[in-house]
Amino acid sequence: MRIDIRTKALQEPTNGVRGVATVTFGNSFAVRNISIVESKAGNLFISMPSYKMKTTDENGKPQFKDIAYPVTKDFREKLQENVLHSYDIGEDVAFDI
């Protein structure tokens, strides 16, 4: 299956979010609003789209639940690698699984 990735850098990053991505699977299914986030250590990683739950953790912070997410560690790593590559080069990329 072909997976197409389109990323966009944000002009004014907020809360460490540097950009967003849309991933399309086989021209049949798309996942939008995958965030490209910079950690406090300066590393980039992806954060899948999520929603805020009504519950909080033990510290009173809101909890979030992913809407769509990679099922396996191998696919998550491959997806993250390709999304960050697209973001770094500023161009769309595609790969096959």
- Stretches where pLDDT is under 50 for at least 5 consecutive residues are none
Instruction: Summarize the main sheet.
Output: 5 strands, antiparallel
Numbering strands along the chain, what is their spatial order in the largest sheet? 4-3-2-1-7
Q: Could you tell me the strand content as a percent range?
A: over 45%
Helix fraction, binned, reads 10-25%
Number of helices: 1
Q: By helix and strand content, what is the structural category?
A: alpha+beta
**Radius of gyration, whole Å:** 14 Å
Q: What is the mean predicted local confidence, pLDDT?
A: 96
Number of distinct beta strands: 7
- Summarize the helix and strand pattern as letters: EEEEEEHE
Descriptive tags:
97 residues, 5-stranded antiparallel sheet, two-stranded antiparallel ribbon
